[in-house]
Design a protein that fits this description.
The protein is of the alpha+beta class and 589 residues long. It contains eleven helices and 30 strands. The chain has three domains: 331 residues, 3-Layer(aba) Sandwich (Rossmann fold), CATH 3.40.50; 103 residues, Spermadhesin, CUB domain (Jelly Rolls), CATH 2.60.120; 115 residues, Jelly Rolls, CATH 2.60.120.
């Protein structure tokens, strides 16, 4: 017995303490930023039974999938985090094993890593990805994420799930780190590329990113790897990396009522939302323990599992098409979150809709939905006829940004036209759009038309679009505008619409000395005694220099200044907005 114990300790110590040089390709030019884990409010339970509440599984509509996976090989999911309890019952069966590697202190598969049979510890340069024995409670995050991913997959494939999906654990924090911040996350992405991962889950982040780190993300994307990242837990709209980087699927968190989770970040960079409140998963303390957590970490883990389900059923689809499927099947939640319209992604994840779509056998392009906050349009010229799509998402004070994501064929063979209710139609040749990539339309209700030029020469493309909230305070006028002509017209800018709330706009008129300025209002309709149009002699809003102040529904009388300079000031609140005003001015001797 003593001999057995001695051998166990000896082997364990060898596994913990041997080191090797990390490949130069990973070490080069990656920042030393500390990356915060995106989950909080951990409640440990050393229970050995199952989670009491898997509410999020029914919430996203998870169920057993009838169709067999179309991929002939397992989907490899790389999880980059703080450590992994490999013996936990929710994880053990899902672990990826590098069968080309043996535990012999040699790099058998010549990939630059010795003995990387089950993942790699980037920070300590060894093959031991388990948490330090004296820090099991602190290094819990990776175990929790892996257990959560596995449970979502089991809810769709039962006991067969571990045959179809494998998890590569990549540890990116040193055993003796003084804080549980992911410091080597991007180095870990390089390892995920080396082991040919299909999907990478990053539940950590920061508000900075270097050019080298962006390049590493691009390398992963170019390799066809799908990367999902949590949006962060600071309840702000600041860009959070890697989530906000190009080609990354950024995931925010919602609660059981489809409301934005109180701690979740939000913003234009979000692509999707997923459950992130009171989510039960695996504990690092023992092989059957559980914990409950909140935040964008569990949200991105759930979304990662959903992406893996799409990938195994649509194995030939590119990452952009996997993202298109996630967004196209998501459920709109902006109407439940009016404060965050256009800043929660395409909607909340729906595994039910994903499964229904997979079992329908339809093409990804069929997921187009005019009411989505984010979406895709696929176009082609099989016939020389006009093709048309409408975009009309929920909300007000919105614009739409359209991005030409993908194009094959001859770009001369087509023209796009964008028709809105409030603006002159915009027309652009496809070859011109290919150069500038993005187009912004300051209206949320758009009819997009594609007019093919030559049906005999095939062309196919994909456009992504997203809602852009417009600052209502500068919707029709902003800042200070200058006029020097002897006569001209000035308006609040709202046209046939009502003016914006909380606006603060000025117009400075300067004509030559020896002149005064006369004003003749043609239209006038503002909230009485509240939304005011002021006229001041000179260039400043000094009360003693005031010529007139107008509000209400009546056309004001004619006014003439005392000097050759007049400042017009229009200021409103955010309650009742009228139709605005229009005036003519003229310099008079």
């Amino acid at each position: 017995m003593k001999l057995l114990c001695f051998l166990f300790c000896f082997l364990f110590c060898i596994n913990l303490n041997y080191t090797q040089a990390i490949p130069a390709a990973i070490n080069a030019s990656v920042s030393n930023t500390n990356w915060k884990l995106n989950s909080i409010n951990t409640v440990f339970q050393n229970k050995t039974d199952s989670c009491d509440n898997f509410w999020f599984l029914s919430f996203v509509g998870s169920r057993i999938i009838k169709a067999l996976p179309k991929s002939k090989k397992p989907i490899i999911i790389a999880v980059i985090d703080d450590g992994f309890r490999l013996t936990h019952r929710d994880i053990a069966a899902f672990l990826y094993h590098n069968t080309n590697e043996k535990i012999n202190s040699l790099d058998d598969d010549a990939n630059g890593y010795k003995d990387d049979y089950t993942g790699w510890d980037i920070s300590d340069n060894d093959a031991n990805v388990t948490p330090p024995r004296d820090k099991l409670k602190e290094y819990y995050h990776g175990t929790y994420l892996c257990g959560l991913i596995s449970n979502v997959l089991k809810s769709c494939y039962g006991d067969k799930a571990s045959d179809y999906f494998k998890i590569v654990p990549i540890k990116a924090i040193a055993d003796r780190a003084d804080r549980t911040y992911i410091k080597d996350g991007y180095k870990a992405i390089a390892y995920a590329i080396a082991v040919h991962a299909d999907i990478i889950c990053c539940a950590w982040g920061s508000n900075v990113i270097t050019a080298e780190e962006k390049e590493l993300l691009k390398k992963a994307s170019d390799a066809g790897i799908i990367i999902l990242s949590s949006a962060g837990n600071f309840n702000n709209s600041l860009e959070h990396y890697p989530a906000a980087a190009e080609d990354i699927i950024a995931v925010g968190a919602v609660d059981s009522l489809n409301k934005k989770a109180a701690i979740s970040n939000f913003g234009r960079f979000l692509d999707l939302s997923a459950p992130g409140a009171n989510i039960c998963g695996a504990s690092s303390l023992n092989d059957s323990g559980i914990i409950y957590k909140n935040g964008t970490s569990p949200a991105v883990a759930i979304a990662t599992a959903a992406a893996a389900i799409i990938k195994i059923n649509l194995p030939k689809k590119k990452p952009i098409e996997i993202e298109e499927t996630l967004k196209g099947t998501a459920i709109e939640i902006d109407s439940l979150n009016p404060t965050y319209i256009g800043r929660l992604g395409a909607g909340v994840l729906s595994i039910k809709n994903i499964i229904d779509f997979i079992e329908s056998g339809k093409e990804v392009k069929s997921l187009y939905n005019k009411g989505k906050q984010e979406g895709f349009i696929s176009f082609f010229n099989t016939k020389k006829e006009l093709k048309e799509w409408e975009i009309n998402p929920y909300g007000a004070n919105l614009g739409i940004e359209l991005n030409l994501e993908y194009l094959t064929g001859e770009p001369k063979n087509g023209t796009f036209k964008f028709i809105t209710k409030n603006n002159t139609p915009i027309q652009i040749k496809l070859s011109e759009w290919q150069k500038q990539k993005k187009i912004f339309i300051d209206d949320k209700n758009i009819v997009v038309q594609f007019i093919p030029a030559n049906a005999s020469k095939k062309i196919f493309g994909r456009i992504s679009y997203e809602v852009i909230p417009i600052d209502s305070t500068i919707l029709y006028c902003k800042g200070k505008n200058y006029y020097s002509e002897l006569n001209d017209s000035i308006t609040d800018g709202s046209g046939t619409l009502t003016y914006a709330g909380n606006c603060d706009c000025k117009w400075q008129i300067n004509v030559p000395e020896g002149y005064r300025i006369s004003f003749d209002f043609l239209e006038f309709d503002t909230e009485a005694k509240t939304d005011q149009v002021y006229l001041f002699d000179g260039e400043y809003t000094i009360p003693d220099y005031a010529i007139a102040r107008f509000s209400g529904p009546d056309i004001p009388p004619a006014v003439i200044s005392r000097t050759n300079k007049v400042l017009i000031w229009f200021i409103t609140d955010n309650k009742i907005n009228g139709k605005g005003w229009k005036l003519n001015y003229k310099a008079v001797k």
